[in-house]
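Hey, I'm writing a tutorial for new members on how sequence and structure tokens pair up, and I'd like a real worked example in the thread rather than a made-up one. If someone can provide the structure for the chain below, I'll link this post from the tutorial.
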Amino acid sequence: MKFSEFLDSLQLQSNSLQELQEEPLASTSTDDLYAILDTGGRPALLKRFKELGVTKLGHRQTLANGLGRLRREGSLTRSPAHKMASQSSAGAATATSAITDTSVTPAEPPPPAQPSPTPQPPSIDERVMRHLRDRSPVAALRLVLAASDDPFVWMLRARVHTQMGSFCEAVLAYSRAASGKDCDDALAELKQLGELVRWLDSPERLYGAFFPKQTPRGLPAPSGSIVTDGSYEGAPIKSSLLAVDPSAARVQIGYRVWCPEKPNPSRPIKGVLLYAHGNGEVAPNYDPFAQLFHLLGFVLIVVEFRGYGWSTATPARHSTIYDDAEPLSRGGAYDEARRSAGIDPSLPTVLFGRSMGSRVAVHLAAICTGTVFAGLIVESGISSLRPGRPGSADAPADMPTVGSAKVELASNSDKIKGVIMPTLILHGEDDSVVPAHHARANYEACGARRKRLVLLPGRGHNDIGQEPDYFKSIANFAEEEIWA
């Protein structure tokens, strides 16, 4: 670099610049000056400036300081030849560089670079709450179930169970969380949960939502099937969830099992269909269809809701629809139902949910751990009851808040994100009760790697089973995905 360029970089006052720009100083190379600094130190550099015609000591000091500063900042570089010269005379430079001009304080060398701190992974509460904000409650559920057992984690579990609609599990978790430092928050959110339950089960929200029919247990069996009627314990009869009593009376949920009357060597039984029916239906309504499912290789089990069939407790409630079904997944109720009907416990089980029953089937598939269930079929199922388009984040303005999140019990599309078992979604293209865009939304949201969407043309909500491709689609799914 020419020294004149270096002078410009110093931005000197004009009266100083006039003297310094004169020859021979202006044509001096900075590399030459670096060599003098390296070999003779600052005194030699000041002397050289005087020889070049810089008569004022202040100017000589300004030049020496600027040259040193720009060198440290990397603004000036030396040629390789001068670098080698400075390295060869390092011994002589060590002695002379100790002599300094006391009028200028030498700059401190820059501190050594500190290593960047290793980024810390997000904490479990950050990860859980992010999943809840993203409407991925199943991912949050798996995190909290795998975490350590302490009051802080129980608080997180309570919030996740609330989002999943597992209110009995949420109450128990809040009770455990109340023993830790989050006691006040746990009790406050438990109170909010009670307000949510009362809001969900208020008369104006129950009116027109359920159409229960009662039928006696033990109605005659259709020919060709052996029928077993039974029941299991669901959630507490009363919805007073602020103090769940393990000894409180629980609802009895009815079910019916159809097994083939005689073995069929050409159509052997290969699995079990655990079926949650639609609104306004009861288990005996499926008597005519039992043998059709036998031909597909299934034993058929149809489960009721509270207030339907011979189940106890009326009316049906929004707040208990999942709590009543959960014993089928983790309470031993399903094992007992198969044992009482003489079903081979090694047969794989496929969950099947029709219309309102799709909420139960998707929920059980979402909370399933291990190999309890082998597949999921959703027929005429909703994706979301939120206002607006499916997947909208809106919720009713008057819906009570638990913690910081509103809860939507009917969101299949949120839960099906976490379903990884093979999934078949069946829907009538002309369904006016639950339009076909719900099926498309569920299919897109489903987390299963192996999933199928079958839209049956010309079929609505209640005549979908009359389409020949209906049973063919189920048979193909079972053969290729369940027992292939």
